[in-house]
Amino acid sequence: MLAGNFYTVTAQSQEPGQVATTIELNAAHPIFQGHFPEQPVVPGVCMMQTITEVLESALDRKVMLKKANQMKFLNMIDPVKQPLVDVTLTYKEEEGGWKVNATLKRDDKTFMKFQGIFN
């Protein structure tokens, strides 16, 4: 789990089928010592785990990625220069799981886009 250590939720709003969360990244987290020293970048796997955790919080249950239809990493996130990131999810229960569309962005800069299915 990354919440509370790698990032902290600073704001969240939720309506049925959608959630908007602002996170603050912990630039001092040990992961950045290896990814990469003196030029930290949020790993793609951490972005994906953040989406998973935001969805789990919205659904109040554990989920597992079943299928990633689209996973685009558009810009790097430097936690020193860009400590705040907005995570927006829309989700809908369908046969076979939860269909999710998600973006990680801040202002006019999009870092990641995701479409997929969680169980």
UniProtKB/TrEMBL annotation:
<protein>
    <submittedName>
        <fullName>3-hydroxyacyl-[acyl-carrier-protein] dehydratase</fullName>
    </submittedName>
</protein>
<dbReference type="GO" id="GO:0016829">
    <property type="term" value="F:lyase activity"/>
</dbReference>
<dbReference type="InterPro" id="IPR029069">
    <property type="entry name" value="HotDog_dom_sf"/>
</dbReference>
<dbReference type="Pfam" id="PF22818">
    <property type="entry name" value="ApeI-like"/>
</dbReference>
<feature type="domain" description="ApeI dehydratase-like">
    <location>
        <begin position="13"/>
        <end position="99"/>
    </location>
</feature>
<dbReference type="InterPro" id="IPR054545">
    <property type="entry name" value="ApeI-like"/>
</dbReference>
